[in-house]
């Protein structure tokens, strides 16, 4: 989906999602990390665990809108994939798999969740293919949190052949998460900060999203660059 079209028209008909306004809040890696990140460095993005709830059948989830029946603050996710073996030029034709928890901290496709068994549900999981600019986008909701983890997204980048190039996670600016979690559908402030999260420990500067812009009324847009050895 075209980003300008999303910002202009919003996502009418999907829950309560409407257009992103002109006046927005924003946060980037320099703001949240407490130090300057060399965004221009051409090195592979942090390798992180797939977590206990990876996608089981990603080829069956080729879709841009991954919301399903979940509710929450709307989130447009724009991922650009770059190839460090080609001077970080955009990587075309790569699969981007994404998965995240819902507003209450539950993952689909698995039992033993905070609010029950979601084995037969497929919400908040999807796959898209990068375009000629190396971009893939998803329509989602701002993820909730669960005990022991800071708010995050899971990503896997794969070649069109299915070969995995990188599994990583993306963290969120804490001030924005606090604002989101004070709204209806969420369960209050997170219990684990980015600095306390064992997955992001020591590398939060490189793991936090490049940019998160928007507000709690109209939703947010997250952009992130993922660099792989393609």
UniProtKB/TrEMBL annotation:
InterPro entries: Intradiol_dOase_C (IPR000627), Intradiol_dOase_core (IPR015889). SUPFAM superfamilies: Aromatic compound dioxygenase. Keywords: Dioxygenase, Oxidoreductase. One of its GO terms (molecular function) is oxidoreductase activity, acting on single donors with incorporation of molecular oxygen, incorporation of two atoms of oxygen. Residues 71-175 form the Intradiol ring-cleavage dioxygenases domain. PROSITE patterns: PROKAR_LIPOPROTEIN. It comes from the Bacteria. Pfam families: Dioxygenase_C. This is Intradiol ring-cleavage dioxygenase.
């Amino acid at each position: 989906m075209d980003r300008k079209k999303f910002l202009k028209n919003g996502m009418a008909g999907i829950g309560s999602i409407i257009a992103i306004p002109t006046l927005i809040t924003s946060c980037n890696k320099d703001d949240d990390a407490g130090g300057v990140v060399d965004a221009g460095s051409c090195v592979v993005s942090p390798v992180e665990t797939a977590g206990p709830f990876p996608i089981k059948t990603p080829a069956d989830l080729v879709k841009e809108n991954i919301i399903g029946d979940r509710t929450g603050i709307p989130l447009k996710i724009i991922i650009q994939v770059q190839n460090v073996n080609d001077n970080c030029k955009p990587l075309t034709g790569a699969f981007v798999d994404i998965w995240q928890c819902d507003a209450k901290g539950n993952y689909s496709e698995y039992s033993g969740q905070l609010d029950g068994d979601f084995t037969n549900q497929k919400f908040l999981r999807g796959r898209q293919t990068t375009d000629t600019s190396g971009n893939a986008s998803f329509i989602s909701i701002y993820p909730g949190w669960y005990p022991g983890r800071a708010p995050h997204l899971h990503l896997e980048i794969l070649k069109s052949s299915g070969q995995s190039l990188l599994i990583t996670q993306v963290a969120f600016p804490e001030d924005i998460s606090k604002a989101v979690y004070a709204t209806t559908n969420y369960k209050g402030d997170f219990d684990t900060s980015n600095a306390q999260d064992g997955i992001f420990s020591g590398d939060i500067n490189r793991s936090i999203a490049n940019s998160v812009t928007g507000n709690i009324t109209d939703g947010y847009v997250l952009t992130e660059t993922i660099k792989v050895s393609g």
